[in-house]
Amino acid sequence: MSIKDIIAPFAVWKRAFEKPWTIKKPIDDRPGADRYRGFHKNDGDTCIGCGTCETICQNAAIDMVPVDGVQGDGGDSGLRPQIDYGRCCWCALCVDICTTGSLTMSNRYVWTDNDPDVYRFIPGYDSKEWDNAETGYSRPEGYSLLKEERVEMPALSVEEGLKSFVEMIKGYSAEQAVKEADRCVECGICVAECPAHMDIPGYIRAVREGNIDEGMRLLYETNPFPASCGRICTHRCEEVCSIGHNGDSVAIRWLKRYIADQVELEDYGKALPRPEENTGKKIAVIGAGPGGLTAAYYLRMLGHDVAVLEARKAGGGMLRYGIPEYRLPYDQLDKDIEYIRGLGVEIRYSINVDAESFKNLEKDYDALFFSTGLSDPYKLGIDGEDNPRVFGGLAVLDEVTAGKDPKLGKTVGVIGGGNVAMDAARTARRYGAEVTVLYRRRVVDMPADIEEIEEAAEEGITIIPQAIPLRVEDAADGKVGFVWNMAEMVDDPDGGRPRPQPIKGEIHTFVCDSLISAVGQGTNLPYLPEESESGVAVKRYKPVVDERGQTGNPGIFAGGDIVNSRKDAVSAIGDGHAAALSIDRFLMKKEA
Amino acid sequence: MTQMPDREKFPVHTGGVENFDLESGRYMKVWQGPQHPGVTGNMALELVTSGDEIVDLKTHVGYLHRGFEKLMERRKWIQNFPLVCRICVPEPDFNEYLYAAATEELAGIEIPERAVWIRTLNLEMARLTSFLMWLGGQAGAFGMGTIGQWTVTMRDFMLDLFEELTGGRIYHMYIVPGGVRGDVPQGWFSHVLTTLKNVEKVLDDIELVLFNNAVFKKRAVGLGVITPDMVDYYGITGPNARASGVARDIRKDRSYLIYDKLDFDIITGISIGVDSDIFGRTRLRAAEMRQSISLIRQMIDKMPEGPVHVSPPNVLHWKIPAGETYLSAECTRGEYGYYIVSDGSDKPRRVYVRGPSYTHAVALFEHMAPGTNIADTAGLMVSLHTYPPEIER
Amino acid sequence: MVDLKALRAEMDKRYKVIEISEQRTDLAFLECDKIDVPDAVAYLRDHEGYVHLSFITCVDRLEDEQFEIVYMLRNHEKKHDLGVKTKIDRKNPVMDSMHNHWAAVATYQRELREMFGIEFPGSPGVNRPFALESWAGPPPMRRDFDTRKYSEETYFPRPGRETHDPAEHMKKTQYPGRADL
Amino acid sequence: MALATFSEALDFAISREKEAVAFYRDLQRIAKFASQKELMGEFEDMERGHVTLLEGVKSNQEPARLSTSIPSDLHLDDFLVSSPPTEDMTYQDILITAIKRERKSAALYTGLKADTDDRTLIDVFSRLIVEEENHKDYFQKLYDRDIQSAN
Fold first, then answer.
1. What ipTM, to 2 d.p.?
2. CATH superfamily of C4-158
3. Is the pair C, D in contact (3+ CB pairs within 8 Å)?
4. Chain B residues near residue C158 by CB distance under 8 angstroms
5. For the structural domain made of D6-60+76-147, what CATH number should be given?
6. What is the SS3 assignment for C85-113?
7. Which residue from A9, A37, A146 is facing B167, i.e. has the nearest CB?
8. Distance, in angstroms, between C141 CA and closest chain A CA?
9. What was the pLDDT predicted at A268?
10. What CATH architecture does domain B68-392 belong to?
């Protein structure tokens, strides 16, 4: 013990003359740090209500609730997260996993109130003073709890692909499929967007868990064309996929294909349920496309006798005659159809139904479902169209399906921007032609699947957008000239698609060996009797049906391209399924 | 409105075993706590005294039992990340690091180098921050509350740094499986260096007034001696062991994280010439604070560039292969460890958290207290640096 | 560095070693017969340098009707951790007390009795509650103790909380016509 | 042809709309399928609506009831060619015919407008041109949506 030990402690007194460290809250403001995890903010316009925040919250502090003024459609559930600050621990896992990045945090941390119930609130909707706070925690760059990149799909190289009609896409391996399935957050946003309302999260889970039989069962619950849809579906589901907001959407279509590819047709029966006890009811289905056969499948599963009448020599409709083999090999389509047929569905080919036989079918069967598709191509409607070097897109594809060389020559022009146009263009390319697609609007406006457009471009197909067709004329050396007018795009005042307007003087001629017109298809519904006779009303060439496909005649149902606006396979499948259940309800007098 | 549990459901507690004849008039039973036996959390000491001398001590925990180990078995791997920091309030980062690192080890994930450096930096800052809090507590336990105010102030400045880096002051939730949550913000390193200077200045002042202090010396010198032969039997780790001259420091012994790239030596009672009493342990911890400051400066100097996170598989379905591991790290109190068992599912099978206070506050303290003066209990307990929340988890 | 083969050979001479496995170069697990554990641990401490006990804990192997008790030992010299494990019958969970080995063992055993219901006859103060004074329920760390169920039965939920599943909600609001089919 | 008065001008316009009503009615007689008849019936009703509108304008001497805003033209009529009506007419054929008819009417009123100096009549013809342009636009939009869906 020294004298220093007595004196030294008095050194603390010097602090009495220093400025205090303390802050006089609330007089002195003390904002949280820039990345402070304070009170939540949610950008309602970005939020899609996927509920992944709720899933990850280990405190169960988040509820998904409907909010006034949020309609919810096109990939938005209409729900928004409500956070209970009595449970929240501000760990921000909800912010980290938010699929759209709508959920963030402000740097505010003081909130006092007498009423404990106010601490349960809907960020972004229950107005708070920190709604517009500029700083606070948001998911840092380069940090992610989800895998944003899709597992690449093995495919033939462009050069190899162009050599033949061998399927381009090879399909995932088990390892790849599981890895891709792992990316799904099971929010279920996609289910509403899928026209068939497939249990997408369910079958993706089955892939992840390696349970292929369960996957098959879930696929067939809503879609008896998994091998086909797994290849050519327009996959609207992927457009709304929550993962797609900040990364690549989950490859839902490829995962569906993966499941179907794992099971041989002979083994389908082991995974799938058998038809129910026979009811003795008979149903006729007109058209063996995806809509008709889907209805047939579910009707058969419910124990009804089904006869399918098909005008062509084989089933599948557009899947067979409109989609080239390199996208959908016939054996895969046959696999889907064969399974349905094998359950006891009778398919009669080469039978043309007219108004007379339609009326007879109505009499002979307990119910009728027609889904005949759009088989008649629309014309270009311009001068010179009857030139022998002008072909219809569908006709070309049809010929190729029949195994014939369409003999298109060295240079081919394709008019149109839909899937038929792309398929025709790529088919022509496979016959060695130089192909140019001319489309009236911009590339972004093309109704074809984006993959089709991209793959067409990769295969060396030139796309000339904003080309308004004017006329077709003969050109030298037996060629044909397509005269078009360059367009500028003008916004539609009514909010429709931007309108192409011709630019004066910008008139060009495209000369080629063959011109393929693929601008759209329709039908006259030639077999449909007058409403007074059949009870089936028509409005602008579409049979009038309710949401479940029922026409004005309670025993007659319709679906597919002739009815819906999307005009794709999966919509027809959705229609067929709904109609089947609704027919069953009608026949069995089941209550809704 | 929160509803209270139905107390009728719980039986009345019917007591432990009494070894002392309280009727004799020679003994008195005193409860110290559960509120504030020191400054670090709720724990009760059941003392039997004779006069002002302690004849028996029983440590009672249970005031902070939150069942974290149980909760973790019922949550997905990622969902435990916000839980673990709460196991030890003053030093959350060790929990975050050990949970993340053990998870990564079982899952076979390699994290980027910069993330490893930032983690190490984070842990050393946590050590410094925690020592600051402890130092105030040690001084306070002997009546020198002013020092407590200084250290709490400095700790707050350290917390400002954590807030800037991690978005949180107490529960940082920053070291996440896969790396760290975000890169260091612009200008943060210079803020750290400024704060370190301030801390050093205060440390100078504290050393002046505490280590040259007749009162402190009178009370702390010779009190609570830990001899080297006690170390293994009582499971003593950290500064408590080092002050007795046992040179063990996991940072050196196992060189986890990037400690093998940093320049430092194990500080022991012998190396700095102090005895293994409260006074000596205090000096040793003050020296370790300066060591942490030096380590932080070294790391800021050499910090490599690069990414700070690799994303694990989708965390919502993340399954970790079956296996088990034990990882430990040198926290301010000694060996902090996580024993994690995975059964291959998306949730841990078992997470056991080893806090150094477990042995220090119960077996060791119960052994050391008898014979001391009741007025010294708090000081003795703080000198063992016990944090009750990590005992009962 | 520890030569696990040599260690195993030494142990095999004395005890029934079921398995020894290496997790890292500085961590291994050694499984023994229950009856051998106290002696094996004492041997490791006195002859193999595992002087430090990091912890004792238990893993509930409910499916196998076993408790797995883990004694984590540390060899400072060789910088090695060794987890000595043994399995005991979950229906009759009794383990020999090792309170004489290290001072803290009694505390660990007290906690294991409280949290898992494992008996350690002879361990001092083993029946005194550790963290759970007044607890009347089953040993809470057992896997068959359902914390959620317990809290739902014991406490009242905060009223006014209701959540919606996005897919189900969309079914009702976005395609009601087909939702009930 | 010179029309002297407001009433004469409207009478002429009404007669043209009536002629259109008759056109679509006659078309339904040759049509083969229910779907064709339905669409023609719809267009017939639409033309009948135009008759009613113009008659109202005439009896109330209220040209202001006619719109003056010209829609932005899709210019489909510039290159579409119509073919004579047949029993197999498709949706596309019927729409092209309708577009062409409205185009013709607008052209007719444009000529009449050029032939007169009467400001009232110029105003009436201008409004009738707009009216016909609107009808044409209506059909063009249908065409663009339903027929040209892939172009």
1. 0.82
2. NADH:ubiquinone oxidoreductase Nqo5 subunit (3.30.460.80)
3. no
4. 1-2
5. 1.20.1260.10
6. EEEEECCCCECCCCCCCCCCHHHHHHHHH
7. A37
8. 19
9. 92
10. Orthogonal Bundle (1.10)
